[in-house]
Structure formats: structure tokens, C-alpha cells
UniProtKB/TrEMBL annotation:
One of its GO terms (molecular function) is oxidoreductase activity. InterPro entries: FAD/NAD-bd_sf, FAD/NAD-binding_dom, NDH-2, NDH2-like_C. The chain crosses the membrane at residues 363-384. Residues 10-328 form the FAD/NAD(P)-binding domain. It holds the Pfam family Pyr_redox_2. Residues 352-406 form the External alternative NADH-ubiquinone oxidoreductase-like C-terminal domain. Belongs to the NADH dehydrogenase family. It catalyses: a quinone + NADH + H(+) = a quinol + NAD(+). Gene3D superfamilies: 3.50.50.100. It comes from the Bacteria. This is NADH:ubiquinone reductase (non-electrogenic). Coiled coil: none annotated. Its EC number is 1.6.5.9.
Amino acid sequence: MKTPDSSYPHIVIVGAGFGGLRAARALANAPVRVTLIDRRNYHLFQPLLYQVASAGLSPEDIAYPLRSIFRHQHNLNFVMAEVQQIDLENSRVLTTRGGAIPYDYLILAAGSVTNTFGMPNLNRYAFGLKDLDDALAIRSHVLNQFELATQTADPAQRQAMLTFVVVGGGPTGVECAGALAELIRLVLRKDYPDLDLRQARVVLLEATDRLVSNLPPDLGQAAQRALAQKGVEVWLKAQVQDYDGQRVYLNDGRILPAQTLIWAAGVQAAELAQTLPLALGSQKRVHVLPTLQAPGYPHVFIIGDAAYLEDEHGQPLPMMAPVAMQQGEHAAHNILHALRGEPLQPFRYRNLGSMATIGRNQAVATLFGLHLTGFIAWVIWLFVHLMQLVGFRNRLVVFINWAWEYFRFERAARLIYPMPQVHSAPSTTITPPDEKEPAAVIATIYNPN
Ligand SMILES: Cc1cc2nc3c(=O)[nH]c(=O)nc-3n(C[C@H](O)[C@H](O)[C@H](O)COP(=O)(O)OP(=O)(O)OC[C@H]3O[C@@H](n4cnc5c(N)ncnc54)[C@H](O)[C@@H]3O)c2cc1C
């Protein structure tokens, strides 16, 4: 039974993503009461969302119920609610359930949302990739395009139906484009023998002159070669200016007819973080002190994608899972230091490496300073992602799915469900149309490094 001592200090954690989950676990044996609040009842492993979108995995394989994760953590209560406001002056959070939850210490780990840089048509017609809803909408929409293509007699329309545009050459865009190309060439080819799938195109648009800019240039080039081998057309220096659901308009005047546009070109801090009366850095992340405290509010810690902090070289820490996890643990330890009257420690990111997979047998990675490509990088990618999934069941199911896919050239989750509203707006929160920013900033900002 969960009976945390009510005299213990109360720590509220908002967000049960990578950062919040780590923070909550780090407080498991401490003499504190923890309330973990999230709008979802599950922890989502976002790095594999693109595999749900490309019919490789099912939603349950990459999500895990929070109540199950924390079943045995006796000092923690989970509240499923949307936090609408953080009242910094009165040390309480206000939720959609109507309640005000007071805190002694707060860890804000609300993550980020898709940023379409104020382009209203992208909000309306493009798909984001930030939550399970987005991934399922993409999966259904992509599969539905093939069904529709079998039923149209108009070759131009068929071509637009079978053109899949991914915007953003960061890891998410690269992985998504590679996975879609393999879905088409290895799996759907067998399902649609009457369609000429040489017509099907996957086009990856990147505003800068290189892919995966968070990795060294040689790995960006390796990623580009691997994508080309898989049939992905990579267009560099291709900046999207508009999309009307039928045509993608580029800054250089090119127009690309396509009925699918997946936007993987930008994120910004969650709205909850943006609304705080605190200075914002790039991607609207909140500037935090090296101890991860909010300036002027020593009882408030902000971590992960919502926080802006620079490393020792003056570079912003990337919006990546390892940063959020390490910060979650660090914030929890700093709170315990504070409770014991000890000095707080500055956060230092231990960067062990970065990686992106392009699909079957192909990945690029930096690991302990080594540059890896091809099969070896792919095996490491598989292992790292498998081990980071929460729950033995999920690891096993994902492993079996990957093995099945590898040996059988199949994708298990090819259901068109729910039926897509063609070109309906994605479910992610996006920049309001009135916050227009110059088109010049529409670049891959997955990772600012
Ligand atoms: C498609 C995709 C692929 C990625 N691939 C990689 C990768 O390969 N490697 C890597 O390192 N990183 C990757 N990332 C980035 C990584 O997922 C993030 O950096 C990481 O999730 C940030 O952790 P976080 O704890 O800050 O936020 P999140 O993990 O996003 O968690 C935020 C949580 O807060 C909750 N929340 C938000 N607002 C509220 C509110 N108002 N009320 C209640 N709850 C709220 C959300 O429901 C969510 O559970 C990827 C991201 C995406 C979208």
C-alpha cells in the first residue's frame, strides 16, 4: 500500500517522459513524498515512434503504463492530469482536474512539442511525429495512400499519392525516411503486385547542406549514401515554405506534388514551460542555472527538452533522451542535497555518443569518440534501443518483431486503424499561426549542435 509519510517534503514531478521517470526513480528510497503528474497514463519511448509510423511496431510495444512502472514505489503517487499552470509564487500546480497541488520542490519535465514555425498550412496538412496519435495517423494515412492509388486511373494523382515527403534531416527524419522506403520496397511491393511501385518515392528534404548535423560530417555523408541505396531521394538546401496538402512549395521555387508530408524538422519546449515568467533560450526552452534550478525559484528544477543549458564549450545541450535522463537524476539528487542542507552540484552532461539508423543493416554512430557506420553501427543501435525500452515484455516483443521483420521481410502492424482523415491536422501542439518567424529559421533543429 502507498502510505507516504505526510510529514515528508512533497516533491511534484510534471511529466513522466525520460527526465521525469528518472527523477522519480532516483527518489524511490528517499524520505520524501513524490507526486508524478502526466497527461498520459504511459511512458513513451519516442525514439521508436517512427517504427509505429512505418508499421514495424505496435503502440503497446513502445509505451508502458506508469502505474505498472511505479507499482512498488511506495513514496510515489501518480496523477493522470494535464497541468495547466504553474503558480511559482504560491508553489502549486493547477491541473485540468480542477485541483491545485502544492509542492515543496517541483521538477518540471514537460518535454517539447512539434514546431512548424508558424506556418498554418503545415499545422493543417502535415503530420507531426511526437506522440502515438501522430504515429498511428501516419501509418494509417500512408497505407491508405496505397489503397487509394490502386483505385485511381489518373497517373498524376497516383504519383502524388505515392510520394512521401519527410522534412528534416536530423535523426528522426533520416530514420523515418529510411523506414518508409523499406516498408515500400520490401513489404508493400508484395501486397500491391498490381501497382508499379517504381512510382513510389520517399523524398527527404533538409534545409541545410548536410544530414544528421549532431554527428560528424563523415557520418552525415554515410547516412546520405545509405539512404540513397534504400531509394530515398535526399534534397539538401531544400527549405519548405508552404504545403497545401497536395503540393510542397520550396524556397527555390520548386513544387513537389505529394499527398503526404511528415514534419520532423523542429521542436520547441512544451507550452507549459514557455508560459513561465522566465527567460527563454533557443527553441523556447527555459534558461536554467547549472544546478538545473529556475533562476529566482530555488525550489523549482527544470530538466530535459524544456530546459536550456549550455555545456562547457558554450553549446546548448541537445534535446535528447540521455540529457533528460541524466538531468532527471541530477535534479533529484540536488533536491536531496538541499533537504540535507548540503551545497547543490552543477550539472555536467556525460556524452557517450549519438546514433541514427537508416534501416536494415545500416546506421551511423559516434561512440566513445569512434565513428561507426554500416552493420556494426546498426547492431549497436539495435542493442542500445532494445535495452532502453521499459519492461521485459516490451523488449521481448520488440526483439521478436525485429527478428521477424529481418528474416521475413515483413512488417507486422499494417492495419489501417483508425481510418485516417486525409490531411487532417496532426494532434501535436504547434506554434500558433500569429507567431510567425522568418522562413530562414526553417531548418533542421532537431539538435542544435
Ligand atoms: C520521433 C522522435 C524520435 C527521437 N529519437 C531520439 C533518439 O533516437 N535519441 C535521443 O536521444 N532522443 C530522441 N528523441 C528526443 C527525446 O525523445 C527527447 O529528448 C526526450 O524525450 C526528452 O525527455 P523529456 O523528459 O524532457 O520529455 P518527454 O520524454 O517528451 O516527456 C514529457 C512528458 O511530459 C508530459 N507533459 C507535457 N506537458 C504536460 C502537461 N501540461 N501536463 C501533464 N503532462 C505533460 C508528456 O505527456 C510527456 O510524458 C526523439 C524524439 C522524437 C519526437
